[in-house]
Design a protein that fits this description.
4 copies of one chain form a homotetramer. Chain A is mainly α and 195 residues long. Chain A has one domain (3-192): Orthogonal Bundle (Tetracycline Repressor, domain 2). Chain A is 75% helix and 0% strand. Chain A is built from 9 helices and no strands. Chain A has helices at 3-22, 29-36, 40-46, 50-74, 79-91, 104-112, 117-143, 153-174, 177-192. In chain A, helix 1 packs across helix 2 (29-36), helix 1 crosses helix 4 and helix 8 (153-174) packs antiparallel against helix 9. Chains in contact: A-B, C-D. The A-B interface holds A 21-23, 25-26, 101-102, 106-107, 109-111, 113-115, 120, 123-124, 127-128, 152, 154-155, 158-159, 161-167, 169-170, 172-175, 179, 182-183, 185-186, 190 and B 21-23, 25-26, 101-102, 106-107, 109-111, 113-115, 120, 123-124, 127-128, 152, 154-155, 158-159, 161-167, 169-170, 172-175, 179, 182-183, 185-186, 190. Chain B binds a DNA duplex (21 and 21 nucleotides) through residues 2-4, 7, 28-30, 38-42, 44-46, 49-50.
Chain lengths: 195, 195, 195, 195
DNA sequence: AATGAATGAGCATTCATTCAT
DNA sequence: GATGAATGAATGCTCATTCAT
């Protein structure tokens, strides 16, 4: 990794939690220099503009979440166990190194949908990838006769994602972690009922 | 209604969709003057600062949503029908005069949770009120033996809200309204299964 | 006194201490409405603009000082005693109802000399009147052979005023009232040496 | 001297006379950009806010006065001659490069006493330093038997300062330079009488 | 005679970005 | 390749004043 690449990476790591907490519009270049100790010139030497940093920060934050989830999912053998890994992770949210500020897809989705097309696309892509990966697991479960053939994998995927993101929003907003747990129990029940 | 009250209301009505679309930080005073045709001085003559406009705009947006939902819910007789009213409304989202920019609770929750305590409180209060009103319906359903006594009304309420808000986010982000419909079908199934 | 005149007087009395404390530029119309409980319209109904209020407030503040000084001076019989009345008054500053904010001539002189011609003229007039009234006393003292005929009454008057105003500035600035007393002792010595 | 330091110094030099003439509240950032030809961003790149410029400008103005006085005082040998240097300087005010707007201590004292604590402290510190430096000269004069041991050096110092500042105010206000000369003659007499 | 609502210029400050060095 | 200095448009907000009612 070249010096330039290392600096780039350093900037991304230090600023990703800020973008995820304050949002794109709420994060200033001054926030970035404060967080990194670098100068404005250095930020602009490594990124063409604020957008590019925000996009890279989103990728970084997303990857953090994905790493956690993939790691827990691949430990599991059956489709049902893999789906339940989501329940396990989000019910024990604090035990995992989630990015500060909560779910980056959710945060970015809400801020960017009407105002920042590039970020919106990234978040939409992340949702689609997530959906596809759940569909894959559910389809495997159907094939291996774990789940009923009558179920609609896309609907299941979208529903699980909606419940998780809804739970994240409600919990972050109210500060009540047992709200998240209650919703995650509903996710668990939904998964149990797939058979 | 005094002139001042009328102007205040006019400002709120004209600017509420802007706050709901661009967010608090993304909405400038210039946006407010452009939307109303009034001058900065006039805005500040009727509100002490941007916060106060934003707070009033949130109330206005929230009320719009609540009016729609209450209207549809009170048309229904049974607890189940009342809950299904949510499914009906959100599945036919575009037929109702929802505020531009989507669900104000969701939008406000995500932006304000880490950055704007007064707005966060308002959004949290709205979620709690919503939850309580669903709990009330579910509890009535239990009492009137529509629903099984083993169900947990608060869990049901939180789950329905999470699914709706998750659906709103996903649909707004991806532009795919059938994603919302798929999730709303899951909500319908959840309600049907309460018996 | 008509209603209008009474309102005018009321505004002057309530706002004079504010102008004397915050200065002309530092005092806003909002300060005036806050201090009086009246509306902007009411202020502008009784005065054509802020200048006119400031000018009237200066007159009011000046008159307060003059009333104190004249009262103490006329109690005295000889020229020397009359001059010593200044020492007595300023050495016991807090016992007299001086306007809040200190000497209005000094305050106005410093702010207005380069920026507000109308106020500057008023302050300059006040200094000249003051000087003339001291000259008159000193001249009487010379005529009545209390003081040496070789003294220059104008020089004495200007020196006494300079010492008093200098003392006011130093004391207000440092908060040390014994600084004022030390200087007032020098004024006393100067008066004693006139013989 | 770095570029930043040079710009900083440039801003101070160009704006110090403006602060001394118009006062802190009366000087706008636009005044600073007009005087320097720089942009607002450039002013704020070199100073954190208007306060910091004002404080630096005060220091600059004060130093100008101090430089003049020290230069003339150190030319003199005896204590009496050193004190008379004040008379000489202020009687020939226009021959020296005093800051435009008059005495910065006086100007700042009057504006800041009730409204700007940081500036008030600076002005108060300047008065105290000035007083101490006169006390030192007077005390030397007593030690070297130029002056009577019965005199109070602090009282002398305060009196001289009060007379000078009073003279400055009166002269600036009325435009009559012979008023200053008359008062300076009184200062001279006071110094002659110290023996 | 007094009010309340509006004006629009002006305020201090921050913004993302550029560019000479 | 990195920095420090500068830009100028935009930020939220306050100002003295006007005027219809």
């Amino acid at each position: 990794m070249s010096k330039a690449e290392r600096t780039r990476q350093f900037i991304i790591e230090k600023t990703a939690p800020i973008f995820n907490t304050k949002g794109y519009a709420g994060t200033s270049i001054a926030d970035l220099t404060n967080a990194t100790g670098l100068t404005k010139g250095s930020i602009y030497g490594n990124f063409t503009n604020k957008d590019e940093v925000a996009l890279a920060a989103f990728d970084f934050n997303l990857q953090q979440v994905q790493t956690i989830l993939r790691s827990e999912i691949q430990k599991q053998a059956t489709a049902k166990e893999k789906l339940l890994a989501y329940v396990q992770v989000y019910s024990n949210f604090l035990k995992y190194p989630f990015p500060a500020g909560g779910c980056p897809i959710l945060n970015t989705a809400i801020e960017a949908d009407d105002t920042h097309e590039a970020l919106r696309k990234k978040a939409a892509g992340a949702i689609n990838d997530w959906k596809d990966s759940i569909i894959k697991v559910v389809s495997q479960g159907v094939e291996q006769q774990e789940f009923s053939p009558s179920i609609n994998p896309e609907q299941v995927a979208l529903t699980i994602i909606a419940m998780i993101e809804g739970a994240m929003m409600i919990t972050k907003l109210t500060g009540k972690t047992n709200f998240r747990n209650a919703i995650m129990q509903s996710v668990e029940k939904l998964i149990e009922d797939l058979k």
